[in-house]
Write a structure and sequence with these properties.
Blueprint: H1 3-31, E1 42-49, E2 51-54, E3 59-62, H2 65-72, E4 84-85, E5 108-111, E6 132-137, E7 140-149, E8 161-166, H3 167-172, E9 179-187, E10 198-203, E11 206-207, E12 215-216, H4 219-224, H5 230-267, H6 271-329
Parallel strand pairs: 1-8, 3-4, 5-7
Antiparallel strand pairs: 1-9, 2-3, 5-8, 6-7, 6-9, 7-10, 10-11, 10-12
Helix pairs in contact: 1-6
């Protein structure tokens, strides 16, 4: 057994373990998904869906089955939305995730997932349905509500993709490229939604109608709200009744969890801090365990090495005595 060589390998293993552990500890918080919006605003990756802007046609293109079917049925025209209809309309079904309420003419967004391969629809902390966000893009703001969820995708310019804007909301912000970062901030339920087709100037992250007048993207879009057939009105009424029932259920659940939520807020400003600490602690324990095993293994090798040296010394002395004894006999 080559003891010195094993000791050198043990030392290299310990150094490698320490460096690997430090790398994991430093990188892991960055891998953790955003679990709650910062009160001062969080920068997130944003895309759009249900429609897109065509540079070639210089127009917004409706690309969802709900609106396309309504246009085909003559309930309203694409021109009334100041857009054109896609040929296949396959990007989205155009319905919200609760009770299949149509997203037509809504100022809304979808919350995406932390991991597209394992959808959890919680990239913003699993916001309740109807939660409102102030969305700031290049100095223009809209207040939109959560009406949908999605699987998400790759990062946007190095930032986690967390938000998918309904195409009419994206148009209000002149978000034509459909792939950029924005600053979002949660606002109270009493905050009014920004009128469809308009946006306002943002001052210090806040909406300021007095500082900048709303910018309308389409007068036809506003008139489109009043169009539609009797069947559409009936569908909306039915959807509204279902939404009201869901709201009552949610309120009952909220009242039961309010005390717990308030207690959680007093003990932690941001719940993701606890998650980060737990993961970091887990990695720290793992690294320390590996280092401990390395140190133990190294000590065992050192002991064997010393024992081996002592054994060799005794053997030499024993041989020396035997040699002297033999000489005396002769």
């Amino acid at each position: 057994m080559d003891i010195p060589k094993l000791l050198k390998q043990s030392r290299n293993l310990s150094i490698f373990t320490v460096l690997t552990g430090l790398t994991l500890l430093l990188s892991q918080p960055k891998l953790l998904a955003l679990s709650k919006i910062d009160p001062n605003g969080s920068v997130v990756g944003v895309t759009y869906y249900g429609g897109n802007y065509s540079d070639q046609k210089k127009s917004w293109v409706i690309d969802n089955t709900n609106q396309c079917n309504s246009i085909t049925a003559g309930e309203f025209s694409a021109a009334s939305l100041n857009a054109i209809k896609a040929s296949n309309c396959s990007d989205d079904n155009g319905l919200g995730y609760l009770n299949d309420i149509p997203l037509h003419n809504t100022v809304s967004f979808a919350e995406l997932s932390n991991n597209p391969s394992a959808p959890d629809y919680s990239a913003l902390g699993n916001l309740p349905a109807g939660s409102k966000l102030q969305i700031n893009y290049k100095g223009r703001c809209v207040v939109a509500e959560k009406r949908d969820v999605g699987t998400g995708g790759s990062a946007v310019n190095g930032t986690q993709r967390a938000l998918d804007l309904w195409w009419q909301t994206a148009r209000s912000l002149n978000f034509t490229n459909g792939f950029d970062t924005m600053t979002v901030k949660q606002v109270s339920a009493q905050t009014p939604l920004t009128p469809l087709g308009s946006s306002t100037g943002c001052v210090n992250g806040a909406t300021s109608p007095s500082q900048a007048a709303p910018t309308s993207t389409s007068s036809g879009e506003q008139s489109g709200q009043s169009e539609g057939s009797a069947s559409e009105a009936a569908a909306k009424a039915k959807a509204k009744a279902k939404a009201k029932q869901k709201e009552i259920e949610n309120n009952a659940i909220s009242s039961q969890s309010a005390a717990v939520a308030n207690l959680a807020d007093t003990t932690s400003i941001d719940s993701d801090n606890d998650t980060n600490k737990s993961v970091i602690a887990l990695f720290a324990v793992l690294v320390l365990a590996i280092i401990g095993l390395g140190v133990f293994y190294r000590k065992q090798l050192i002991r064997k090495f010393k024992k081996s040296k002592r054994t060799k010394t005794k053997t030499k002395k024993s041989k020396s005595k035997k040699t002297k004894s033999k000489k005396r006999r002769f």
